[in-house]
Amino acid sequence: MHRKPNLVLASLILPLLATAAHAGDAIEFTTPRNGWRNAAGDTAAYTQEVHYPAVSVSTPAGQPASAMIAGRIRTSPKADAGDAGDAASAAAPAARGRRGAGQVATLVVNGVAMPQRVEEDGSFSRPYAFSGGSNSVEMRTAQGAGKRVQFYDGYQGRTRPRLRVVLSWDSDATDLDLHVVAPDGQHIFYANRVAGNGGALDVDVTTGYGPEIYSIAAPPPGTYLVYVNYYGSGAGPEAITVAQVAVITDENTPNEKQQVFRVPMRKPGELTLIKSFVMK
Description:
Structural class: mainly beta
Largest sheet: 5 strands, mixed
Order of helices and strands: HEEEHEEEEEEEEEEEEEE
Helix content: under 10%
Strand order of the largest sheet: 2-8-7-4-5
Oligomer: single chain
Radius of gyration: 20 Å
């Protein structure tokens, strides 16, 4: 039997599709862009100077486009506590925002979600040491907009971080610190951000959300220890924040593995061993 089209259903769905498309248009990526690229010749500055208080994770001057994430959310209202909580929920629950500090969106890089602070003018920017091969970057706003780009870096000589550890957390005005101890005893943290074995911490975030990212291209074999230190909070000594640590090995290879751990941090001064693991 021939059925007539459901005009009522169509009248409900089509406006929703149009709204979703319009919401995606509100997010613009300056970099990365969809498609194929070759990063040969680019010199990426993975670490950056930090002047306290570090109000945001920004990209250092001269950073090549192949090693950064940047863009603008054109309809970017100032956030209140509810907006910040909704935006960060994909990365960690119950975020607490600060009125007038821009907004907090969710950045998803190769499947790992983390909060991303957005400035009051809607701009966002952070350094990121991408691996060669296929990479995806997605931005999701508190208002429901989302945009994703997929690109392939064909530069065969690009150094790939075989191990990456990403720390983020769910509250503003707090300072959590990532500590990674390698099997050779080298300890990376905010006061020692580049190690002789090639490991590096990209930035020390002191004002909330993170992320802080440790990466190393050729990790020495043996046991690694990942700690998180609750350094301080502007919200009071009893402010609980939830730390999220993602451990990624062999990124962008058939052997890639991701593990995500969420641990409540209850008071400043607390030091917690999040994960120990063995690299071969």
